[in-house]
Model the fold of this input.
Amino acid sequence: MDMYADIILEHYKHPQNHGTLQNASVTHEEYNPLCGDKITIQLLIENDKIKDVKFVGKGCAISIASTSMLTDAIKNQSIEEIKKLDKEYILDLLGVDINPARMKCATIGMKTLKLAVYHFLINNHKKVSEKEFSVKEE
Ligand code: ZN
Done:
């Protein structure tokens, strides 16, 4: 039985935007204790837009593939657009049904991305709350 769509395995084997940025505006890491996934995202932010993004991670196929797809999809998006990203966005990218028990694997990349933007804003003395950048997983 095929557990995952081919595209997920393809992104898992050959992640897009994998690596590190020399000139990152912000670096953020998140860990999913349920599965052991660990994702670090680096962003280059200019004029409130994502100019470049790289990530490194260790984890299951869903966590790596969803982060790979996400980093491809969000290039040149604005901070406002990143703020609005939700669980459905990542599920649409993955294109498969995700078991509720694996939802944190699917959303860890997005969680890392949004909190990276949050920390970038905080570092730049913007008044934002972490809640605005949370990802609902239910
Ligand atoms: Zn996982």
Remarks:
- Residues 32, 35, 37, 59-60, 62-63, 105 surround zinc ion (CB under 6 Å).
